[in-house]
Amino acid sequence: MFHDISHASRQPCVSLLLDGKSIAVPAGYTVAAALLTQHRRHNRTSPVSGAPRGPFCLMGGCFECLVEIDGVSNRQACMVEVREGMNVCTQQGAGELTTDPETLSYEV
Amino acid sequence: MKYDLVIIGAGPAGMSAAVEACNLGLSCLLLDEQPRGGGQIYRNVGRQTPKGKELLGPEYQAGLPLLKAFELSNCKHVAGASVWQISAQGEVFYSVAGTSNAVTAEKVLITTGAQERPMPIPGWTLPGVMTAGGAQILLKSPGLAADEAVFAGCGPLLYLVVWQYLKAGVKVKAVLDTTPRSNYLKAAKEWRAALAGRSYLKKGIKLLRDIKSAGIPIYKEVNRIAAIADEARSLGTVSFCTPKAELQIETQHLFLHQGIIPQVNLAMASGCEHHWSTQQLCWTPKVDDWGQSSQQRILISGDGLSIGGAVAASLRGKLAALQVGYENGKLSVQQRDTRGQPIRRLLAKELAFRPFIDTLYRPAEQFRKPVENEVVVCRCEEILLKDIKSAVENGCMGPNQLKSFTRCGMGPCQGRQCGNTVTELMADLSGNPVEETGYYRLRAPVKPLNLSELASLYDEH
Predict the structure, then answer these.
(1) Helix-strand-coil split of chain A, %, nearest 5
(2) For chain B, which ranges sit under pLDDT 50?
(3) Is the pTM of this model over 0.95?
């Protein structure tokens, strides 16, 4: 389990949905950091064998931390900061294809 | 919009180049993937907490004046921008928040830095296994650490993160040092380099002494490391051998490290020629003294060139900016050379230490080229060592053909986590030199791109 060692008075929390459950996370966290502090060890299953996978490099290079964010699958959890009302879902396999243009042009 | 210079990456090289280029009066745009400047080494330096500053130390804090200078410069900074193609005509294509954009540049400077060398051991795809660099990223932002972690591998970054964990009061379960014994002897022969970098050497020795006196178990000359799953198919146990014993440690966190290597994807996909560095065991772009690549419009600097550290990266960024200033007519050849001279002196001093470090922490063969047949080499497509062996037995000639044989390297990471391993493995298996074996042929887009994202380029036209 990852925990906060900064001892800083954190910025206000934002609330988001993680697999339908509401969680509160300090602003400025990436989605990957949020997952790692929420007893979540894996964020997706592999599209090849179905094995669970978790964040690995945390710098956008390994594509292990892929999750669905606000209806768009295969987003890198380590590259996206949490936002109020964000809907994060762990991903099974290759993820669903989204064709709705409104959904695809997402906020960061 | 056309810029004199488009820089890709806001680490020390990119930020220094931007400041220098703006001072020369060049119009300059910097594109970077992160929400804020700093790159990996100075990540979050502008908003670090007091506790974080204390942990990360003065070398990290040294990034703050550079970040401030960059923010005060006239360089336009687009954050959250993922560059996916550079054309020979100087068009730079990038994506922000699911929408694509294009700009044109007279010159492009690639400062995309380094990544950790893949360390393919049994079970390295299990959740809970991460890179030591990844652990440090979480320490820098937002300030997270994991208790009872095992650190395994070798190289300055590994010990630094262990030291930072200990300083933060986080309990470290064990350090598995994989430095081969023979490396110490070979490194001793590089004593001139060690002397040249004695300030770094002194810091390193203090760091190792602090770790030793913290009383955590440190195993030396470790080999045959494996990550073993628990009942939830995540990391539960690490097994390993020392020269004396076979051991197991229960842990939920294993942080791996075998040094860092240049991030070559963008430069290679843009047609820049590379060669194999026998000193650093990685592909490095062919450039001249200023960072000019084999592609007329593209320069490369920073750790994406060869591993030299943050200070060297910053100096190389400045040199590249001077060259662009010269080509743009802002500087005469004499002005360029005069301004470059003191930078070169500092750079030579900075790089003089590398032969010592590269020799001491040269990763052992078994951690670069897996031995067990069932080890995953390509994490994305789950290609095992035995799949690569059988492809070679069936006549597969090199890494690029291996893609058609097995799909190795064809997943979303585009070979970033397997390319170096595959090059060395295939050279061994086929008995050809590494240089001849080559690398994957990389193509744009260098980051996965939705079709709608691609199509959005034409929205305004």
Answers:
(1) 10, 30, 55
(2) 461
(3) yes
